[in-house]
Specification:
Helices cover about 60% and strands about 0% of the residues. The protein contains ten helices and two strands. It has a two-stranded antiparallel ribbon. The chain starts with 16 loop residues before the first helix and ends with a helix.
Amino acid sequence: MSVIGAVSPPGGDFSEPVTQHTKRFIRCFWALNRELANARHYPAIGWIDSYSEYAAEVKDWWEKHNPQWWQVRTAALDLLKREQGLEQIVRLIGPDALPDGDRLVLKVAEMIKNGFLQQDQFDKIDMYCVSEKQILILDIMMQFYQRALSVIRNGCPLTKIAALPVCEEIVRIKTAFPNDQIDKISAVQLHFDEQFGELEGIYNKAAAI
């Protein structure tokens, strides 16, 4: 049996006593976020305050069915946590003062928010997403981050990476490919490899000189 309880703390303050007492007895918590709702980002579930203690328990099952799950889930969560820390700096000095490596974190976090965490219940394709498709989307986004970080370290400016057409393709995977056509997501992977291959060819050579 699954029991779902709801707590509505005054002013959305999760530190108030009733909410804190409730969290002592539950192992999964969805924190609804007013700022996300006001921004029309649905479901308005805050990814930092929310948690599940069941993740470690289902890890063995996922290792048998899709070993990528734990890796991409952990990488995405870590990146979102880094983005939260950087946002505090951005509010003080603005994003332009950050090095490209940190601005890349903000860029990929935005891709995760819009292309993975946000869901349209009125879209015939996006209203339901099978786990295999979810993992493919996150995997491509994490590949994007790793390869982009590599070329940035070799001298490529973030503006060139952000201008790649595949950036928009990655964000639109969730609405472009139905659950019964996820094999076609390989086309996005191909464009991704081609466009990054060109950048890597230029900047890896420049770094070797």
